[in-house]
Design a protein that fits this description.
The protein has 657 residues and is of the alpha+beta class. The chain has five domains: 247 residues, D-amino Acid Aminotransferase, Chain A, domain 1; 104 residues, OB fold (Dihydrolipoamide Acetyltransferase, E2P) (Beta Barrel), CATH 2.40.50; 73 residues, Orthogonal Bundle (DNA polymerase, domain 1), CATH 1.10.150; 78 residues, 5' to 3' exonuclease, C-terminal subdomain (DNA polymerase, domain 1, Orthogonal Bundle), CATH 1.10.150; 80 residues, BRCT domain (Rossmann fold, 3-Layer(aba) Sandwich), CATH 3.40.50. Helices cover 35% and strands 22% of the residues. Strands 14, 15, 16, 17, 18, 19 and 20 form a seven-stranded antiparallel sheet that branches. A five-stranded mixed sheet has the order 3-13-12-4-11. A four-stranded antiparallel sheet has the order 6-5-9-10. The longest helix is centred in the first third of the chain and has 25 residues. It starts with a helix and ends in a 6-residue tail after the last helix.
């Protein structure tokens, strides 16, 4: 019955979260206010009864905080890696007749949690195994983590912070620039958890799965690891999927996990086997590197032999030329594969590839196709000396021990088209009607060679009207969209320049730090830039390198001649909306989206939240007489409701269009 209540809490949190997201983010009601209130009251009562409050529960609000740096903390005992095997026989032999708990080996960021008096007190990353980084504020935004639990003694547990594949793919779909998309969920999770602001962590849908109970003050688990897991579940934690195994059912359970691995939504890279008898496991001690109470099982890769047909070289916006192996199709883990990334020149050369070579291929972690071995090793594959797109010279670059291939031609169409696509994208200058296919046509005809040329397309009107897929009406619409893009904010411009490693958030951070002074930004050195919160050495080096190139500076100057930069005016310390909080709902007339108005408010120091509270200064809604939940809440709390027009006038914000 108690487990049913925990399950009901998690169900209600998810259900209410879905309703809130639909209402506040999409302006869609999926349940009535009456139904929402009833479920909310039920959740609140269950939380009081059980003592369990999840981090994403609507009954609590985790305040967003930023820190100057992540403090370090030493673990009470070193966190060791596990010994590994890929052999089922070795795994059975390791059991030695003792029962064990089999669970997923999750592929995320290891976190150690400490609870005092039933409340989350500390969260620390694994770090180097002895010293980790304190990420408590960030952990409080994990979607499924209990902030309070029924157990009031000191509790320490270890688990994995992960981003589900489904969430990872959803986030990538929202990024228009393919090259800017995240590479894999593990790296994204690691970066998300180690942010200086937990608002970023909250936006990444990070989840926590408990894997090991380290200590629980005064508790007796009758020497059973399974009882420990049951205890953690009773506290409201999502525990890694696990089963009790013996020599009799070991192979059956391995088959179960193997079959599930290919479609499992939680990133994993194998299994863990740990003795069910806690005392027995501890009595075995440890080697110099590994504890003997547990062992990791890595999947034996399914290998297929095939023939290398060609290597495809693909150029990107940054000039990086990526090699991709094309081979005779083979069946791997239930799917047909015929391509595998070779990543860089160092890996390609290490494989000693040649067309026609017999190779073996596999799926890393049963997902990503890779070349395992070259059986022929002809080593005859040439490294292109010319770019596959423009024919310009290529150059090898070496960073540490890794060699990569780049196109040296700054005017390479591949660079240009990808760069122009980013420049006109929604988060940059937001030019409607300029797809990558249209940009290709404009670049091929020589109408666009640099960013400034985009604002001179009027002189090519006749040729554009005659282009396939165009006409007078389409051309006029495009030119009007370009004309609107002449007025732009500095963060959008900086992001649109396509400087390596400079994303939307980093562009905003830089602009705020320099009080939106472009000249100060352009002439800042790497040391100054590195001091900006959230920037660091890599981004600082990329920015200064871009601005150090004379050609880039000249192109930027020509571009600025066509733009009107919307500057917020006052310095960070004097922003008019500092300390004020706003909520925006419904459609807008003077902004393409609510994000546009949100950006203006943030530039003036204000904050935009998703729900109306007593701290809200104003609700912006063009339908001020509606009976929506937000309007109702604002009236109950005495929060002013202003139309978009009235809001812009009262707070001195210029319309976007």
């Amino acid at each position: 019955m108690y487990e049913d209540k925990i399950g009901r809490i998690k169900y209600l949190v998810e259900k209410l979260g879905q309703a809130a997201k639909a209402y506040y983010a999409q302006d869609v009601e999926i349940m009535s206010n009456r139904e929402y209130d009833a479920l909310y009251d039920e959740l609140e009562a269950l939380e009081q009864e059980t003592g369990i409050v999840m981090a994403d529960s609507p009954t609590v609000r985790v305040g967003y905080q930023a820190v100057e740096e992540l403090p370090k903390d030493r673990h009470e005992s070193p966190m060791l890696s596990l010994g590994k095997t890929k052999s089922r026989e070795e795994l059975a032999e390791w059991l030695q007749g003792h029962p064990a708990i089999m669970s997923w080996k999750l592929d995320g960021l290891t976190i150690v949690l400490t609870y005092h008096d039933g409340k989350l007190a500390k969260a620390v990353t694994r770090g180097n195994g002895e010293i980790g980084e304190v990420v408590t504020n960030n952990a409080k935004t994990f979607k499924n983590l209990p902030l309070t639990i029924p157990f009031t003694g000191d509790l320490v547990l270890r688990g994995e912070a992960v981003i589900l594949y489904s969430d990872f793919e959803r986030m990538n779909r929202q990024i228009e620039d393919v090259e800017a998309r995240y590479k894999n969920p593990r790296n994204l999770c690691s970066g998300s958890v180690r942010q200086l602001s937990n608002e970023v962590t909250a936006s990444r849908s990070v989840r926590f799965y408990a894997c090991v109970l380290v200590s629980a003050e005064g508790m007796d688990f009758h020497n059973s690891r399974k009882e420990q897991f049951s205890f953690l579940e009773e506290q409201g934690f999502d525990v890694v999927e696990h089963y009790l195994v013996t020599e009799e059912n070991l192979q059956e359970r391995l088959d179960y996990f193997a079959e599930k691995a290919g479609t499992y939504d939680i990133p994993s890279d194998g299994l863990v086997l740990a003795y069910e008898d806690l005392a027995y496991g501890l009595s075995l001690g440890r080697t110099a590197k590994f504890p003997r109470h547990s062992i990791a099982f890595k999947w034996a890769d399914e290998l297929r032999e095939t023939v290398l047909k060609e290597v495809e070289w693909s150029a990107s916006r940054t000039g990086l030329i990526n090699p991709v192996a094309i081979f005779e199709p083979v069946e791997l883990e239930g799917t047909t594969v015929s391509r595998a990334s070779l990543h860089n020149i160092s890996i390609l050369r290490g494989l000693k590839l040649g067309i026609g070579d017999r190779i073996t291929v596999y799926k890393a972690n049963m997902i990503i196709p890779q070349i395992a071995e070259n059986l022929t090793c002809s080593d005859t594959l040439p490294i292109p000396q010319t770019c596959p797109v423009c024919g310009g010279a290529t150059q090898l670059r070496q960073t540490n021990d890794v060699q990569t291939l780049y196109c040296a031609n700054g005017k390479c169409p591949a660079k240009q088209i990808k760069a122009f696509t980013l420049f006109v994208s929604r988060d940059a200058l937001n030019v409607e009607g300029l797809s990558e296919a249209t940009l290709e046509k404009l670049v091929d005809r020589g109408f666009i060679q640099e960013y400034a040329d985009l604002f001179c397309l009027e002189k090519h009107r006749e040729e554009i009207v005659a282009m396939e897929g165009f006409g007078e009406k389409s051309c006029q619409k495009l030119l009007e969209s370009i004309d609107r893009a002449r007025t732009v904010t500095l963060p959008r411009l900086i992001y649109g320049l396509g400087i390596e490693n400079i994303g939307v958030a980093n562009a905003r951070m830089l602009c705020r730090y320099f009080d939106y002074d472009l000249e100060a930004m352009r002439h800042a050195d790497a040391e100054t830039l590195s001091a900006v919160e959230g920037v660091g050495e890599v981004i600082a080096a990329a920015f200064t390198a871009y601005m150090a190139e004379e050609e880039n500076r000249e192109k930027l100057d020509r571009l600025l001649g066509h733009l009107q930069l919307e500057m917020p005016g006052p310095s960070q310390g004097e922003q008019e909306l500092a300390g004020k909080s706003f909520v925006i709902t419904g459609s807008l007339a003077h902004f393409a989206s609510r994000n546009g108005l949100k950006e203006r408010i943030e530039e003036k120091g204000g904050k935009v939240t998703g729900s109306v509270t007593g701290k809200t200064d104003c609700l912006v809604n063009n339908d001020i007489t509606s009976s929506s939940a937000k309007n109702k809440k604002a009236k109950e709390l005495g929060v002013p409701i202003l139309s978009e027009e009235a809001f812009l006038a009262q707070y001195g914000i210029a319309p976007e269009r």
